Amino acid sequence: MSMMITPPAYPVHELFAAVRDAIWEVQHQIQAPDALVAGSFLTAMSIACQGNVDVVIPTGLERPCSLYLAMFGQSGERKTTVDNLVCASVYEHDKQYASANVDALAQYEATMRMWQAADAALQRKLNKALQEGTDLEQYRDELVAHARLQPRKPVPKRIIHQNITERPFLEALHGDGKSIAILSDEGEIVLKGGAMARPGVLNKSWDGAATLTLDRADAHVHATNPRVTISFMVQEEVFQGFWNKRGRTARGSGQMARYLVAWPESTVGFRRMTLEDHTWVHLPSFHERISELLVMADKRLESGEPRAKLEFSKEAKELWVDSQNWIEFQMRPGNIYSGIKDFASKALEIAGRIAAVLHYFGDLKDPISRDTLQRALHIAWWHLDEFNRLFGDVNCVPQLDRDVHYLIQHLFDHYWSQGYGRASWNKVRTHGSVRDQERFEAAMKELERQGVVQTGSERGWRGKGKRYIYLNPHYFQPALTA
User: Fold this and answer.
1) Shortest CA distance to 265 belongs to which of 396, 391, 389, 350?
2) Domain 399-481, CATH class in plain words
3) Quick one: which H or E segment has residue 200?
4) Which pTM was predicted?
5) Could you name the domain of life of the organism this protein comes from (predicted)?
6) Which of 22, 70, 176, 271 has minimal CB crowding within 10 Å?
7) Does residue 367 have a cis bond before it (omega within 30 degrees)?
8) d(CA 53, CA 208)
9) CA angle, corner 415, sides to 411 and 416, nearest 5?
């Protein structure tokens, strides 16, 4: 993965006003990176919409509106706080499921005891007939009918799953049209879950496969038309461990290419605490809409009503064609997306999914307009460039050069441009992404060699006091005025 270039601001302004204002409100209150906050909102919206609608993209294919998201950030980015705030309605819906699960389990146990009593009585009847030499064939129909009545233990009903293996994953989707999410603010839980080791299953879920099956001696599971959202926030070291072990498979199988990835600039160390009251003006309306759509999805599933199909307007289809032709050209050898053909080839479909989510969540009239698709494209293009930044050909740049570039950017953004001519050595190391001690020291040594910085203590260049990084004005001032 590469951190050579700091990503631009997330295009929050492209979201419709109700969502946009709620994102800005959370970002202002929590002071977490913009892409992490926006990613949580897209996650909640995907979960709420995926059980209600599908999208017919201009190629004629009917696809889910489900999204996969992978967001990166260091420890202390307040990922947990953001997740709990934004997805509160989804968690609350799961609490309501938990109560229903208790009742369903009690009903199952009562029914099973009655079935077992009938089974025991039938077995006694067979034993008696066998002792008397009576033909047992006369009981076949009764045995078959009884076997068909054996109750199936209910799978606990809930939306959010974290550390889940393949079998529970498919059991949660058993039936027709089930909708779940693999979601965690601690990505290690998700990445180490067994389902992540089966990219083929997750790929089929993303594609909206007609049927996912699990046939074993003790289990026969059939999930028809499942809908799945995956979203996790993960620290660099944790993801790097997963990448070292499974990265080749994740990339080669196309699994990683289905994710909207984001690694925004850290805000740790630059947040300002205030005593102002945290009054939520816009977030409650967002939560109400999420709850409304989750209830609608439950009713739709119970009634057997199919999901609605969203299509694009004629003008939106024309924009789609222009965008497809442009991105296809950029995948040619030597062009900007030639190193990430896997993601680039899916980027337009992902944009279509985002457009469907924006359209349905905003309760807009059909069909999906050109304006909505344009907004979705701007969001998808941001993630396309982010995927290129993290996984594209830029990764051929040596690690030392990447670390040097990142430190220069970090020192400029968080110190020089804020009016500071020096920075704490420990703060820069612990609050930036170059946190490995050896890599950090090697990069700082290179910066000193190039004359970009000097290092010393507050007691003098040879003292033993607190260590600082002093910025060279002749290097940073031209960058500020350029």
Assistant:
1) 389
2) mainly alpha
3) helix 199-207
4) 0.76
5) Bacteria
6) 271
7) yes
8) 12
9) 90
